[in-house]
Structure formats: C-alpha cells, structure tokens
Amino acid sequence: MTTASVSCSLRVRGLAKSFGANQVLKQVDLTVAKGEVVVIMGPSGSGKTTFIRSLNFLEMPDRGRIEVCGVEINDPGAKPDAATRRKILEIRQRTAMVFQSFNLFPHMTALDNVIEGLLSVRGEKKATARIRGLDLLAKVGLREKADAYPGHLSGGQKQRVAIARALAMDPEVIFFDEPTSALDPELRDDVLKVMRDLAREGMTMLVVTHETRFAQDVADRIVFMEGGQVQEDTTPARFFGAEGSERSRQFLGRIHDR
Q: Rounded distance, CA 53 to CA 34, Å?
C-alpha cells in the first residue's frame, strides 16, 4: 500500500486561541487537500506552533471548527462531551506529530521507540511489531541503528527515528513542528530527504519550518503567518519570487542573514 492511498485532507475555519490576555490565533482559516504539502512560515511569535499543535489538540483551541480526515469538531473550546472526546481520539489516531525536540524515550533503543505505539496502543505482538519497526528504520536509513539508544545517536538520527515512530501508526496526515531547527546544518539533509520521500509518496503534510530550499522544492503551498493570522497563502513560486509581498521579502531576508 502506498502512502498516497492512506493520506487525507483537513479544513480549519475560524480557529482562535488565547493564553490569558495574549490572543495567539485570530480566526485562522486553512484548507489542505489530500496529498498536499503545505509549509507554514513566519516570524517567532506568529502562532505557527500553536496552530499546528491545535490541529491534533495538543493545544485546545478556544473557538473554531476543525475537520481532519472527515472527522469534524465544532466549538472545541467548550467542555468536550463523550462524543467529542471520541472524535479527538480518532483525529489523534489518524495523524502524527514530529517535534523539534525529538521526544524519544532515552531508556529505549531506536527500535523500541519506533514500535512502542504498536505495542501499547494497538496491542500488536512484539514479533510482528519488530518486523514493522525494522522496515521503517530501513526506510529512514537507520536499520543498522536499531539497537542503539538515543544517547548514542546524532540529532539528525534521533529525528529520523522520530519520523519512523510517527509512520509506525500509519498516519493519514503528519504535522512537522520545525523538525530541523535543533540540528546542525550538516545533519539536516538526511532528515529533509526523508520528508521529501514522504511528500513524493503522497503523504499529506503540514510543515512549520524555515528551510527555504525544502519549501521551494517540495511545498505545494506556502502559508505565511504573522500576528496570529494567515497573511499569505500562495505558491512557492509567488512567495519566493518577484511577486512576493514586501513583508515576506523582509522575512526571507532576515532568514538568509542568519
């Protein structure tokens, strides 16, 4: 089965989120088609991470409507009833998140990190899960590191293990929250290659990143956020080209000056 056959779409309308008096998201709308790769860019504090964490309810939005893989939740800020909690669980089961900080279990080998969800959530037999886990480690180029602990892996290797762990649960959408920002430049390429491969296979992906080359090469769309709102939603050609807005050119100039 190809990845494309299990990807799906999502739609967000009027999403809002505040932390105390600080309104981080202000009526955000976004639609992502099945198999589309959308890169979210913007300055620090623009709401990018809060937005992407809200899509699988790691952050609970105050208002709005979220539909992922046909599962729709309205008014998520209200105290969820049993039906809403079931829908949130279904969305979480059909999506995966890859974090900036890897979030691997340090006391588990790479293979054990990958298969933990298969064992504890799906109740698969360990022998079956190990076969799946080894296949996924091979997919991200780390089959030979199956028995290594995170403390003996580079940052790029840890992130690839984290991607393999996400894939183990057969997600239909993957959210990436700045997956290369904690890595040295020479370690980023292997992680970005895995992400490029997933995009070619047709995985629906939302990627918060400042990796401009990846965005230009792989993204179907660029969403530029600032002040908790979507300021631009356009193609990479327009965003990075002469037709890009003055504000986006300023932003890109600052990235390139780092």
A: 19
